[in-house]
Write a structure and sequence with these properties.
Butyryl-CoA Dehydrogenase, subunit A, domain 2, Butyryl-CoA Dehydrogenase, subunit A, domain 3, two-stranded antiparallel ribbon, 15% strand, binds coenzyme a persulfide
């Protein structure tokens, strides 16, 4: 893959930021189970909270490959930061940019781009995860708009968010996507979940108890909420792939450095073939996954530029995003697991960095669609092609 000079400069900026601001803080944030709130201001100052937002609304209007390069670097520094930034820029800002009315874009995009408002995406529910079409949150017509009632789970950025995209069933009309200001009456935030990894990332439940959303709060077309959610997840999955590449690369680099320093049997363990095979395999899986993440980004860009790029089929956007996320998340978990093995007894200890990377990597196999769903989506598109050939 060949990057332009601009892309290389932006990647270098993100890498310096990750090195200076994230990497050394990451273990502390993991232990504290919270990010330093000031980090969002720093990200906003660099423009990293408006990466996909058009310039007229104060964003950087990056192409997707630049965006994915930045996400990889941020996630290399701290995967919880990578996740927050990916949700905010991808499914949230991406959906508003694509389907928002002029009024919605003017209201929300400058706030998201400047970091005044952090975005969250509320699709999953206690009983609706992989089966995202089975939501029980309802939106009832209220005369002046809609009234939302239900519970959402696993909402990243949920407590800090100043804007939440909430998906709810409309009476007999499919699903709607609503732009909810969390300061309204009836909006409640549950306790932070205690998660295995990505512990600094905020994951909460939210309750909606008759939350009023005016006419201007419905995103796009009535009843199209489910396709919007799936479309947002394509972009989200490309971002998670880049996040996983960052985590996997971090594990590989830690392991390689340790292998050069650690001596056993009178020489660095990097001299042993068993260690070299692990490092080579990490490099192969991570490099392949990076290409797949950027391939998904290219497909999404082609589709959104109306180049007639298909959504369905194994060459379509949805399958390519699923392939990238599946490959990268497995590469990250595998690399972090093998990095612990290379560190040996030290790797199993809390204050060495690689055990955190394994806990963080595991999340990428689950959120924004489990890897079982990724395989289902990919197989469905392979079979669709076969049936129509
Ligand atoms: N972009 C735009 N539209 C899309 C789309 C996309 N990527 N994918 C599907 N659609 C449209 C379809 O064209 C269809 O529209 P019509 O109703 O007009 O025909 C509609 O959306 C439903 O699509 P489809 O029938 O393919 O959906 P399924 O019910 O088969 O999808 C799965 C089932 C399991 C694939 C889906 O529910 C899924 O991805 N689940 C995982 C959810 C998830 O990732 N949850 C994690 C949330 S974030 S923590």
């Amino acid at each position: 893959m060949k990057w332009s000079q601009d892309q290389l400069e932006i990647r270098a900026l993100a890498r310096d930021f990750a090195q200076g601001e994230l990497r050394s803080a990451s273990a502390g944030w993991d232990a504290a189970k919270d990010l330093d709130a000031g980090i969002f201001r720093k990200l906003a100052d660099l423009g990293f909270l408006g990466m996909l937002i058009p310039e007229q609304y104060g964003g950087l209007d990056f192409d997707l490959s630049t965006y994915l390069l930045v996400l990889e670097e941020l996630s290399w520094g701290d995967a919880s930061v990578g996740l927050s930034v990916a949700i905010h820029n991808g499914p949230v800002a991406g959906l508003i940019t694509k389907h928002g009315s002029d009024g919605q874009k003017e209201r929300w995009l400058p706030l998201l781009a400047s970091g005044e408002v952090l975005g969250a995406f509320a699709l999953s529910e206690p009983g609706a995860g992989s089966d995202a079409g089975s939501l029980t949150t309802v939106a009832e017509a209220s005369g002046t708009g809609w009234k939302l009632t239900g519970t959402k789970r696993w909402v990243t950025n949920g407590g800090r968010a100043g804007l939440v995209i909430v998906f709810a069933q409309l009476d007999g009309e499919g699903m709607g996507a609503f732009l909810v200001d969390p300061t309204v009456d009836g909006y409640g935030v549950g306790a932070r979940e205690a998660t295995m990894g990505l512990r600094a990332s905020e994951t909460v439940s939210i309750t909606l108890d008759g939350v009023e959303v005016g006419e201007g709060g419905l995103l796009g077309v009535v009843g199209r909420g489910f396709p919007y959610a799936l479309e947002a997840l394509d972009l989200g999955r490309a971002g998670i792939a880049a996040q996983a590449v960052g985590i996997g690369r971090s594990a590989m680099e830690h392991a390689a450095r340790y292998a050069l320093e650690r001596e056993q049997f009178g020489r660095p363990i990097a001299n042993f073939g068993a260690i070299q095979v692990k490092l080579a395999e990490m490099a192969r899986r991570i490099a392949g996954s990076r290409l797949l993440a950027h391939d998904a980004g290219a497909a999404i860009m082609a589709a959104s530029n109306d180049e007639g790029h298909p959504r369905t089929g194994v060459d379509g956007v949805t399958a390519r995003a699923a392939i990238a996320k599946l490959s990268a998340s497995e590469a990250a978990s595998w690399s972090a697991d093998e990095a612990i093995q290379i560190f040996g007894g030290y790797g199993y200890m809390r204050h060495y960095p690689v055990e955190q990377l394994l806990r963080d990597a595991k999340g990428t196999e689950i959120y924004e669609g489990t890897n079982e769903i990724m395989r289902h989506v990919i197989a469905r598109e392979v079979l669709r092609d076969a049936a129509s050939s």
